[in-house]
């Protein structure tokens, strides 16, 4: 008999079905044992009634080109370029070399990342087991056609809307409806694409494919992940918005002031305004971010790790808590039966015979069932009724000859366990083993309910997990790198704690069983304990939410359908490729080799990317902030903007900012990510910008004592900015290693070489530099020394202010939390 929730769900499905395009074509009557013929499949393919959808999991090439070309800052640069061409100053457009180079690098790397993701996605792409021409064949989910006969079992994700023809199973439709409770589906019921099988086995007929599915496609709905709460993404958007608000008014003001305060020459006004605008645009910063993330994705792909969106790398790298299931991470997922202990006067042979019959009748396949089959075998006796194992019930059962046999977790199988038996089981649990209990009762299974009869324990089964050889070393890495580990398992908490101790997890003795706990109790326990046993799928999600509410960045690994809700809730979800396809489809990272030992390298790669982006991006914002500060200073004083030619900033763009930033972004950096990305960025960029602004103001002071031409002053300011930038780059590269030393002196040599060639061979108009006197050279040398100490002082001041603000915010959070707790 169907429950009310099931009936409600099917009515809801019928209602939603009307919202999707109806299929008008000849429908095939198909035998479930034969399936479609090859001719029928070809007919469906000609009719385009396949499960292929227009929805794509990655950007199209057109989207990549449009996204890289038509950006706000690119449009500004192209506008400046056209303005300079119109006024007859094409020589001043050399800044476009940097813009075009940025554009090409971004396109090449994003296309390469797209191809890499698509290539390795094929390995973890959803498949379907279909019956065709009397044979069972596994095909890509996109190759399923209308009226295909499909076989579903535990862990599968429903790839098309379908109707159940044979069997029954429980499915979770949370990806579509938000309802987390499993729903029973039996003959005649409808299945929705995107839901996943919790227990049981069914034979179904595809009733909707591709665009005709209620969920549209598996990719569109099954991968229904939240947009990442990325600090980098938030910082980039903040920079674009802030500079976008500032740059246009300042550009207009600079043009008007130059035009009306001078001889009214619009050509000079455009030149000065163009230089100011180009200086404010941190175009390379956004290329740097996307490039570093794309390179990270490509590097992880070589390590057999699929990253399904750019910012997942950052989210994993920021993780302060890593939640693991015992199976597949600490243990390798394989199990073996250690012993079977008969209880009372029951015989071992009879117990093994009963388990063998259960092995034959129960279709759910997992490591526990495999271990039981290996030890007890299978006995071909057909049960009158059966109940498949599910993660919420923690048991399985069959009915035969008027009796029902239940096998599962002792506390779920037997309501009251005798003290002597409980003590005996605890001995095995304390050694890290798993214990199952077999019980017998009168009556037969009715639907989803066991008979209401007294249960008699027949025996206990002791099963051992095999601990992974590299688990201890991997756990140690996370302990040493400030990542707290919490074990969340459906197994007995005592046994899980024992295994956790053996692999070196901190506070493994702080464990709790969540059986029968309320949501509020689970929420409170999340912060107090490190090991959780008897956890339901819903409770896993509550633990993740509680940790996030307490300012933790949470990563979650999983491989089963019982992990889906928690994976969706986590900041970063990691699935094992050998786990259920449902888990893979909702996760942001898929480990193709299912090797937990690869996790440290993934986290380290993320830390390298994020830390280096923050460090390198500060060079771009240094120039942006400096140009804004200097433009505002010039606007509100009688002085004019010193740079008349965008080419005067080209050496700074290339050899102090562009090349070094990209080189620094690719270095190793395993330090834990601390603080907010935008704060870290501005703490590095602001002192440098303030230092260069002070240097610029001192140039205006210097010209009062040593009058010079406009070209000489522009050259002095350009070289001052270039030398100041080199000094700041020197401080940013510390502590020097071989890589940074070579990079710094190569850039210094390049700058010196270009300047030498400029003064010896190139016309003045190329970079806008003119010869300077010894007094000017002496001033620049003094400014270089002053820059070093001023930047040191500015950095200390800004860092101190940021620290004070951070401490105040943390104090406010603690006070707020205390108030709420009280």
What can you see in these coordinates?
By secondary structure, this protein is an alpha/beta fold. Mean pLDDT is 81; it is low at 1-20, 216-225 and 813-822.
Number of helices: 28
Strand order of the largest sheet: 8-21-20-19-9-16-18-17
Shape, per Cα inertia axes: elongated
Query: Which stretches are low in confidence, meaning pLDDT under 50 for 5 or more residues running?
Result: 1-20, 216-225, 813-822
- Average pLDDT metric: 81
Helix content percent band = 40-55%
Task: State Rg.
Answer: 33 Å
Q: Quaternary state, please?
A: single chain
Q: What structural class is derived from the secondary structure elements?
A: alpha/beta
Q: First CA to last CA: what distance?
A: 48 Å
Largest sheet: 8 strands, mixed
Number of strands: 21
The percentage of residues in β strands lies in: 15-25%
Write out key terms for the chains shown.
21 strands, single chain, 28 helices, alpha/beta, 822 residues, disordered C terminus, seven-stranded antiparallel beta sheet, disordered N terminus, eight-stranded mixed beta sheet
In short:
The chain has 822 residues and is of the alpha/beta class. 53% of the residues lie in helices and 15% in strands. The strands form three sheets. The protein has an eight-stranded mixed β-sheet with strand order 8-21-20-19-9-16-18-17, with helices on both faces. Strands 1, 2, 3, 4, 5, 6 and 7 form a seven-stranded antiparallel β-sheet that branches. Strands 10-15-14-13-12-11 form a six-stranded antiparallel β-sheet.
């Amino acid at each position: 008999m169907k429950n009310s929730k099931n009936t409600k769900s099917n009515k809801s499905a019928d209602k939603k079905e009307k919202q999707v395009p109806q299929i008008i074509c000849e429908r095939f009557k198909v035998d479930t044992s034969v399936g479609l013929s090859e001719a029928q499949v070809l007919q469906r393919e000609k009719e385009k009634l396949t499960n292929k959808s227009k929805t794509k999991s990655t950007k199209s090439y057109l989207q990549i080109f449009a996204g890289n070309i038509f950006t706000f800052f690119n449009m500004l640069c192209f506008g400046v370029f056209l303005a300079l061409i119109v006024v007859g100053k094409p020589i001043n457009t050399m800044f476009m070399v940097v813009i075009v180079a940025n554009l090409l690098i971004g396109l090449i790397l994003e296309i390469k990342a797209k191809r890499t993701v698509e290539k390795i996605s094929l390995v973890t792409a959803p498949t379907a087991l279909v019956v065709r021409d009397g044979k069972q064949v596994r095909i890509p989910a996109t190759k399923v056609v209308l009226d295909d006969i499909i076989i579903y079992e535990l862990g599968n994700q429903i790839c098309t809307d379908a109707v159940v023809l044979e069997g029954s199973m429980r499915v979770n439709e949370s990806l579509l409806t938000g309802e987390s409770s499993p729903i029973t589906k039996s003959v005649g019921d409808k299945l929705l694409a995107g839901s996943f099988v919790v227990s049981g086995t069914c034979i179904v007929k595809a009733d909707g494919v591709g665009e005709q599915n209620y969920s549209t496609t598996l990719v569109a709905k099954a991968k229904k992940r939240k947009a990442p709460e990325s600090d980098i993404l938030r910082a980039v958007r903040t920079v674009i918005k802030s500079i976008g608000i500032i740059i246009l008014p300042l550009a207009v003001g600079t043009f008007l002031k130059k035009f009306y305060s001078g001889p009214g020459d619009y050509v000079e006004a455009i030149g000065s305004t163009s230089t100011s605008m180009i200086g404010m645009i941190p175009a390379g910063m956004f290329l740097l971010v996307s490039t570093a993330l794309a390179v990270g994705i490509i590097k992880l792909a070589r390590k057999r790790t699929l990253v399904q969106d750019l910012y997942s790398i950052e989210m994993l790298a920021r993780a302060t808590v890593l939640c693991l299931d015992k199976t597949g991470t600490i243990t390798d997922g394989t199990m073996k039966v250690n012993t079977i202990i008969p209880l009372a006067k029951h015989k071992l042979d009879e117990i093994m015979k009963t388990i063998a019959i259960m092995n034959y009748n129960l279709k759910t396949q997992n490591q526990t069932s495999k271990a039981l089959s290996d030890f007890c075998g299978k006995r071909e006796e057909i049960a009158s009724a059966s109940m498949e194992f599910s993660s919420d019930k923690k048991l399985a059962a069959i009915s035969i000859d008027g009796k029902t046999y239940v096998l599962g977790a002792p506390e779920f199988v037997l309501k009251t366990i005798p003290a002597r038996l409980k003590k005996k089981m605890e001995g095995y649990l304390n050694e890290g083993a798993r214990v199952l209990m077999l019980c017998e009762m009168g009556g037969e299974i009715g639907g989803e309910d066991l008979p209401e009869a007294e249960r008699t324990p027949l025996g206990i089964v002791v099963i051992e997990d095999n601990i992974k050889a590299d688990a201890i070393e991997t756990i140690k890495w996370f302990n040493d790198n400030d990542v707290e580990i919490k074990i969340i398992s459906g197994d007995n908490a005592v046994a899980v704690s024992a295994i956790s101790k053996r692999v070196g997890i901190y506070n493994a003795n702080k464990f709790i069983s969540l059986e029968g706990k309320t949501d509020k109790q689970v929420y409170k326990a999340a912060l107090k304990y490190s090991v959780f046993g008897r956890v339901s799928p819903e409770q896993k999600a509550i633990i993740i939410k509680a940790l996030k509410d307490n300012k933790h960045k949470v990563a979650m690994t999983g491989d089963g359908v019982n992990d889906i809700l928690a994976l969706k809730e986590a900041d970063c979800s990691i699935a094992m490729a050998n786990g259920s396809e449902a888990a893979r489809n909702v996760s942001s990272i898929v480990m193709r080799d299912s090797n937990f030992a690869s996790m440290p390298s993934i986290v380290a790669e993320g830390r390298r990317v994020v830390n280096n982006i923050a460090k390198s991006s500060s060079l771009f914002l240094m120039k942006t902030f400096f140009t804004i500060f200097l433009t505002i200073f010039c606007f509100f004083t009688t002085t004019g903007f010193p740079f008349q030619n965008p080419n005067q900033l080209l050496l700074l763009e290339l050899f102090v900012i562009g090349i070094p930033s990209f080189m620094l972004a690719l270095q190793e950096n395993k330090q834990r990510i601390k603080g907010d990305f935008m704060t870290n960025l501005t703490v590095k960029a602001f002192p440098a910008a303030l230092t260069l602004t002070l240097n610029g103001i001192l140039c205006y002071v210097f010209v009062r004592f040593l009058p010079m031409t406009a070209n000489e002053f522009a050259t002095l300011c350009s070289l001052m900015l270039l030398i100041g930038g080199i000094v700041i780059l020197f401080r940013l590269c510390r502590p020097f290693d071989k890589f940074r030393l070579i990079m710094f002196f190569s850039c210094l040599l390049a700058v010196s070489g270009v300047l030498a060639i400029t003064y010896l061979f190139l016309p003045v108009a190329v970079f806008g530099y003119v010869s300077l006197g010894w007094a000017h050279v002496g001033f620049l040398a003094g400014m270089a020394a002053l820059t070093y100490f001023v930047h040191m002082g500015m950095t200390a001041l800004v860092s101190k202010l940021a620290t004070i603000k951070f401490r105040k915010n943390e104090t406010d959070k603690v006070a707020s939390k205390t108030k709420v707790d009280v």
